[in-house]
């Protein structure tokens, strides 16, 4: 089956909907490990101890019958890469590859500080000549934590509108930010979020597995 590895409960709802739309025949399971993101947020980064715990839980999910594991948390994306297992994917790699092909500067926007370094590192791997700047909006994360996702997305969109003219592409580093992209479709620059782009790649990879 396709196993989703989440750190926020709302991502389960989001990815259930995407799978129902894009690959309804694929059996799935959802693993929630919210404590891992809580710890990384408190530390401001993924410490070696957190990384070890992430990989232990990912291995357990693989051993429990996962044909493929998709990590939907960009903060933990580097840990997914470090598994060195073709069955493990990170949701934001296809998005990063698309962003790296964009002209001009790339703005990486996040609401959790621990997400910035893994996303910027991934972008540099995908396109080493990309000019990258970051925008941290940590004061908006409590809206998401309180369940007020509409306000969360609106505030993200409002701030990014003020920045958009200086960049060739905007990357929303967290899957939780995807709703803001819908509010920014009128911008003259692409605003990329990982869920749909990553799901397309994951479903294709799943179907190609032998």
Topology record:
Blueprint (H helix, E strand, L loop, with lengths): L1 E5 L2 H14 L5 E5 L1 H10 L4 H16 L4 E4 L5 H6 L5 E3 L2 H8 L5 E5 L5 H11 L5 E5 L4 H5 L3 H13 L7 E4 L5 H5 L8 E3 H15 L2
Parallel strand pairs: 1-2, 1-3, 3-4, 5-6, 5-7, 7-8
Helix pairs in contact: 1-10, 5-6, 5-10
Rounded to an integer in angstroms, the radius of gyration calculated over CA atoms is: 16 Å
Q: What percentage of amino acids are in beta strands?
A: 15-25%
Describe the biggest sheet? 4 strands, parallel
Through-space gap between termini: 13 Å
Instruction: Indicate the overall shape.
Output: globular
Q: Count of DSSP E strands?
A: 8
**Mean of residue pLDDT?**
93
As a percent range, the share of helical residues equals 40-55%
Strand order of the largest sheet: 2-1-3-4
Count of alpha/pi helices: 10
Low-confidence segments:
none
| Coarse structural class | alpha/beta
Q: What is the assembly state of the chains in this entry? A: single chain
* Helix and strand pattern: EHEHHEHEHEHEHHEHEH
Descriptive report:
This protein has 210 residues and is α/β, with parallel strands linked by helices. 49% of the residues lie in helices and 16% in strands. It has a four-stranded parallel β-sheet, with helices on both faces. A four-stranded parallel β-sheet has the order 6-5-7-8. Helix 9 links the parallel strand 7 and strand 8. The radius of gyration is 16 Å and the shape is globular. 42% of the residues are buried.
């Amino acid at each position: 089956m396709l196993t989703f590895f989440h750190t926020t409960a709302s991502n389960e709802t989001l990815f259930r909907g995407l799978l129902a739309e894009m690959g309804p025949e694929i059996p799935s399971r959802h693993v929630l490990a919210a404590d891992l993101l809580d710890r990384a947020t408190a530390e401001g980064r993924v410490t070696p101890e957190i990384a070890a715990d992430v990989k232990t839980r990912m291995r357990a999910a693989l051993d429990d019958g996962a044909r493929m594991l998709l990590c939907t948390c960009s903060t933990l994306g580097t840990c997914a890469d470090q598994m060195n297992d073709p069955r493990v994917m990170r949701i934001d790699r296809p998005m990063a590859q698309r962003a790296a092909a964009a002209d001009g500067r790339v703005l990486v926007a996040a609401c959790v500080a621990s997400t910035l370094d893994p996303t910027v590192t991934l972008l540099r791997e995908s396109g080493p000549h990309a000019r990258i700047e970051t925008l941290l909006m940590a004061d908006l994360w409590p809206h998401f934590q309180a369940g007020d996702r509409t306000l969360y997305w609106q505030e993200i969109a409002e701030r990014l509108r003020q920045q958009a003219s200086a960049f060739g592409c905007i990357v929303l580093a967290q899957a939780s930010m995807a709703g803001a992209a819908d509010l920014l479709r009128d911008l003259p620059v692409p605003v990329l979020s990982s869920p749909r782009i990553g799901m397309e790649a994951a479903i294709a990879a799943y179907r190609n597995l032998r």
